[in-house]
Amino acid sequence: MVQFIFDTLFRAADLALIAVALSAVYSLIRFPNVALVQYAVVGAFVGMALQQQGVPIVPAVLLASLLVGGIAQVFNAVIFQRLLRLDPAIALIGSLALSMVLSAGFLLGFGPAAQRFSVQVAPATRVFGVRVTEMQVLTGGLTVAILIAFALLLFRTPLGREMRAVSTNPVLAAATGVNTARVTGLVVFLSGVIAALGGAMLALRGSVSIDMGTNMLLPVFAAAILGGLGNAFGAVFGAIVIAAAETLITNLNFGPIVGQDHVFLPASYAPAASFALLVAVLLFRPRGIFVSEVTRV
Amino acid sequence: MIEAQDLRAGYGDGADILNGISLTAGRKELVTILGPNGCGKSTLLKTIAGYLKPRSGGVKMHGKDVSTVPIHEKVRHHRVGYVPQTDNVFRSLTVAENLRLGARGLDRATTARRYDALMEQYPVLASKQGRKASALSGGERQILSLARALIAEPEILLLDEPSAGLSPLMLHEVFDAIAGIRDSQGMCIVMVEQNAFEALGVADRAYVLSLGQVAIHAPARDLLADPAMRALYLGGHVA
Ligand SMILES: Nc1ncnc2c1ncn2[C@@H]1O[C@H](COP(=O)(O)OP(=O)(O)O)[C@@H](O)[C@H]1O
Ligand SMILES: [Mg+2]
């Protein structure tokens, strides 16, 4: 049981930041920018590249995240705003296309091998009988800290109030003097930063390969939809549900059902859990698990 | 304070909705815009506010040409308040947050003072400060949207059907409040209305639009008194 909780929480931490970023931009520009999962990979790779150039790890990660925030803004201005004028569905397809292009770019730029930050790896310790590494605890804590910081920004500052205002009613926000284009740009920037931080946390816990983004796409998307797209902190909840489902499906003994002692699904079946949940939610609660009015960023 | 000159405007690359409208409104004046549904009243207000750029003609405020100044800059630099016809509150924000957004850019002390004054003036809001705007009734939302615009103490106030969804009792309360602001603060108010009779009761002048043009422009008193006008355009309510 303890093992299950830890596995779920760490997996949820993997997904949460990127899902929150996806949900936050959705609330302002009304299409799910799936390229965010690739922005996470860029964040990790650029961070590692900077470290190889001799930049200490903390500034390397921060610098990489800011850079990705800028890249997110550029892509948004150059590509997505144009596609959005045509149709949100076209923008979604555009973001898929951008994902593929970025993915191909990674292969050229970084090669197919998985890469990791160079950090001293302390031996794993046991907590409540569960193997936990120092990096898992550290990055898990950082993930929670980043989420709290984002929540405080959103709900406790005038700027956050403006972000929420633009999200619920851009026309009226402009009538209170809010420059909606600027606020939207800022949220796009923040989404890039948060996604990149998410990618860096993933890289710190293990390694990052060029197909990480593609692999993360389904669970991250499912988490964001589960939480109600546009409801940033619903996405955290969605991440936990998806993580629990994935952990469950790979740890459940299906033996008794098929008349054998032990039958476990291989880990590669984990995405099936997200997929099944995604379909179920879309069928029964297309606006997410939370009822009608949600606080949208 | 407002001089609109021969405005032509429309949406996207669609046809002109406004076909050359001129309008003025001065300090301490309440001007109402009447006319049948779809004749372009809201479009006119949006063009004056700066959501739509005029295709030709221009808008001056305080004597300056502001035809191409977007709404968020007008609000900040030209003391303009605008209350749209629909969706005029931030539904997922609380009543207090709605008002704080209206007070954007003001210092703390001023905000607190005006906030308290509005709470006193509109007790319906005072008892629901922490509630989401989505939980308010239609009438309460209209009051909130008005209060949100007023907290900034604009010199020019553009109101699109402030009486929509109000009970007759509330309607009179809101119109009296609007006339009161004109008198006490010397505000310049342009108000689009469906309730023609009631609007003419508090307004100084009226423009009646038809097909994107000014069909009638007259003092409100004259319109109310003219039987032909009543039959033709007002008929109790403008259709
Ligand atoms: N956002 C919009 N895009 C395109 N056409 C619009 C839009 N808003 C209004 N219209 C059209 O402009 C015309 C005038 O509308 P409007 O100004 O809202 O009228 P009113 O406020 O007098 O009822 C109508 O024909 C309406 O269909
Ligand atoms: Mg209208």
How helix-rich are the residues of chain B, as a percent range? 25-40%
State the domain count of chain B.
2
Give the largest interface.
Answer: A-B, 22 and 30 residues
Q: Give start-end ranges of low-pLDDT stretches of chain B.
A: none
Tally of individual helices of chain B: 10
CATH homology group of the largest domain in chain B = P-loop containing nucleotide triphosphate hydrolases
If classified by CATH, what would the architecture of the largest domain in chain B be? 3-Layer(aba) Sandwich
| Overall number of structural domains of chain A | 1
Radius of gyration of chain A from the CA trace? 19 Å
Provide the spatial order of strands within the biggest beta sheet of chain A. 1-2
Describe the structure.
Chain A: GO terms for molecular function: transmembrane transporter activity. Chain A: One of its GO terms (biological process) is amino acid transport. Chain A: InterPro entries: ABC_transp_permease, BCAA_transport_permease. The complex is a heterodimer of chains A (about 300) and B (about 240). Chain A is an all-alpha fold and about 300 residues long. Chain A has one domain (about 1-210). Chain A has helices at about 1-30, 35-50, 55-85, 90-110, 135-155, 160-170, 170-175, 180-205, 210-225, 230-250, 255-260, 270-285, and strands at about 125, 130. Chain A has a two-stranded antiparallel sheet with strand order 1-2. Chain A starts with a helix and ends in a 13-residue tail after the last helix. Residues about 290-295 of chain A have low confidence and may be disordered. Chain B folds into 2 domains: about 1-80 and about 155-235, P-loop containing nucleotide triphosphate hydrolases (Rossmann fold), CATH 3.40.50; about 90-155, no CATH class. Chain B has helices at about 40-50, 70-75, 95-100, 110-120, 125, 140-150, 170-185, 195-200, 220-225, 225-235, and strands at about 1-10, 20-25, 30-35, 55-60, 65, 80-85, 155-160, 190, 205-210, 215-220. In chain B, helix 3 (about 95-100) packs parallel to helix 6. At the A-B interface, helix 6 and helix 7 of A face helix 2, strand 6 and helix 3 of B. The site of magnesium ion has 4 residues of chain B, from helix 1.
